[in-house]
Each structure stands twice: as C-alpha cells, then as structure tokens.
Design a protein that fits this description.
The protein has about 210 residues and is α+β, with helices and mostly antiparallel strands. Helices cover about 30% and strands about 30% of the residues. It has five helices and ten strands. The chain has a five-stranded antiparallel sheet. Strands 2-3-4-5-8 form a five-stranded antiparallel sheet. A hairpin with a 2-residue loop joins strand 2 and strand 3. It starts with a strand and ends with a strand.
C-alpha cells in the first residue's frame, strides 16, 4: 500500500519477480517532498530493478546502489530502503535495510523489532551495507512501513507513534496480509481524522500462511 500526501510521491513500493521460485519486495522513502523527492525516488526504483538480479549478496546490492545514487543523485537528498527477498515454500526472508525504520514481526501475540540496518543511501559513497535475515514461522507477519505511518499527525499535532502501532498490531485480523494492512491504514485514518496529511504513507505486509 502506498499513498501520496501531495501530487507526487517520494515513496516507492515495488514487487520484483526474480525467478519462478524467488521474488523481492521493496519499500523506499526519499527525504524531502515534491518533485525533487519524486525524481530521486524514480532513480532509486530504476537502479534497484536494474541491479537486483545481478548481485549475489544484498550487501553488494546496497553498496552498488549507494555509489550510483551518490554519483547521480541530488544535493542534500538521501533515500532509505528496505529490500526483501523471499523464496517460495520457505519462511526465510533475506533483507537489506538501508537507513529505514526497523521492520516488525508479529509472532502469535509477541512483536519483535528487527535490528537497525545500515546507513541511508546517497549519503557517503564508501558506506558499507550488510544483509539481515529473518525466519517466519507459519502464521507470522512481517510489517515494513514508512515514517508517514508513525508520524501521521492529527489536528492536535499528536503523532500516531510507535506505541499506538505496537498496541494496534496484535488486535488486527490475522486471516491475511491484506487484512493486517487494511486495519493499519484504517487505524491511522481514524486517528488523523480531517487533518491534512504531511507525509506519504507506505506499507508492506508479508504473512506466511498457516
């Protein structure tokens, strides 16, 4: 799910089929607003799609993307990214987190925050990146989100925040990824009410079926 706060978005949510039994999901968030952010977002998406099938490790994927975005990016702009690789018939998920908010894993009634990732893209040409992994058991749900979710603001200038997110996740329907995503978006919309959105809101929900 992705929704722009303005006419153009600085977020990207993408699905990249890589092989018959392997696919990737990506959520990126570019700093700033408006056309400059949208231009860097387009560069981020095109670079990721060009390189995703060439790299054997996600660490090397992050390093190559970073060098390209440092070379071809815009001054004082950077991008965060979570890139997930999933194999069919397996609960193993490989991921690259470049400066993004740590994804959450909902296991039964327990919420696990994944470790903090590497540096954001397009900041330092020689930055290093590392690959993470997580194993999803049957029924586990992985949630990746942009800060437009936790920093959604109501008309009293209150943030939706991490505490509301983590309090809401366990009570969401557990039937499908679509239900979890729709429940989160509905909770944010109810909290924000009539206040004007200030940031793009993007979300990936990956659930291993029972």
């Amino acid at each position: 799910f992705t929704r722009s706060a303005n006419d153009v978005s600085g977020d990207v949510v993408d699905y990249v089929p890589e092989e018959p039994q392997r696919f990737a999901l990506a959520l990126g968030d570019v700093s700033g607003k408006g056309l400059p952010a949208a231009l860097l977002m387009a560069k981020l998406q095109s670079t990721l799609r060009a390189l995703a099938n060439e790299e054997l490790t996600l660490a090397s994927l992050g390093q190559r993307m970073n060098r390209i975005l440092c070379r071809d990016g815009l001054p004082n702009r950077f991008a965060t990214l979570v890139y997930l690789e999933v194999c069919a018939q397996s609960g193993s998920v490989r991921l690259l987190n470049a400066g993004h908010l740590p994804p959450l894993v909902l296991r039964a009634e327990r919420i696990e925050e994944l470790p903090t990732g590497s540096m954001a893209l397009a900041m330092l040409p020689e930055a290093t990146f590392f690959e993470q992994s997580v194993e999803l058991a049957d029924g586990d749900t992985l949630v990746v989100f942009s800060d437009g979710l936790t920093e959604a603001t109501n008309d009293r200038d209150e943030f939706f925040g991490d505490e509301r997110l983590q309090a809401h996740l366990p009570i969401l329907p557990r039937r499908s990824a679509r239900d979890v995503g729709a429940g989160l978006v509905a909770a944010v919309d109810e909290f924000v009410g009539d206040a004007r959105p200030h940031d793009d809101l993007s979300l990936i929900v990956l659930r291993r079926a029972l």
